[in-house]
Amino acid sequence: MPGNSYYSDHQTIYVPVTVSECLYYQIPTPVELSSFTASLSAESYVKLTWVTQSETNMTGYYILRGTSDDLNSAQMVSPLIPATNTSSMQTYEFTDSEVYEDGVYYYWLEARETATSSFHGPVSIAFSSTSTTPATIPLQTALNKIYPNPFNPFACIPFSIGKDAGPTPVSIQIYNARGQIVYSDDLGVKNPGNYKDYVWDGKDMQGRDCGTGMYMVRMIAGKTSFTQKVVMIK
């Protein structure tokens, strides 16, 4: 133990041996990331936002985009976004204005140090080219066509709240082929409008991957519910 003295016995000679205090140093983490999210802007561009709690010896960040959840197939879509390298919370944003085709897109954040990189994500978002037209308030509340279908593992679940419905509480429930609920999400109160960026990641309420097969998606809007069949393939 530090500070204690020990003696070794060799015939009749005792030699004092003292263990000095040990000092331990913790290497600072280059970046402490608290969130990384994707959303659609008012102009129907994809906005990536990330928040760091501290940064040390960081060069900066890159955003990568792909059409699957495989990082190896993703492409870099941003220039280097310089890091602030402070110990206080920092918020960064990057807008991807070069997404044109409908589908689900996946984004990664590359945190670049001097000699190495770490990757965070992916986060996913559903994009529809029709969202670039002026926004209109739908006449009826509806669960719109889910895509892709079949899906693996992400499915976009678009829905609408009709103009006469007013602010409406909305929730999404997923049932397996045996009628058992595997996923539920309370989306809160939604105003009349079209909602196109809700994505189910194919996991149950415990975060486990759901298996291949048929599922029923149920949207509950106020006192009305809508269902639609989807199929997961792997």
Features:
single chain, 5-stranded antiparallel β-sheet, Immunoglobulin-like, globular, 4-stranded antiparallel β-sheet, 234 residues
Please give a structural write-up:
The chain is an all-beta fold and 234 residues long. The chain has two domains: 31-127, Sandwich (Immunoglobulin-like); 135-232, Immunoglobulin-like (Sandwich). The chain has strands spanning 5-10, 13-18, 31-40, 46-55, 58-66, 75-76, 81-82, 90-96, 103-113, 117-127, 142-143, 155-156, 159-161, 168-175, 181-190, 193-195, 199-200, 213-221, 224-232. The strands form six sheets. Strands 5, 6, 7, 9 and 10 form a five-stranded antiparallel β-sheet that branches. A hairpin with a 2-residue loop joins strand 18 and strand 19.
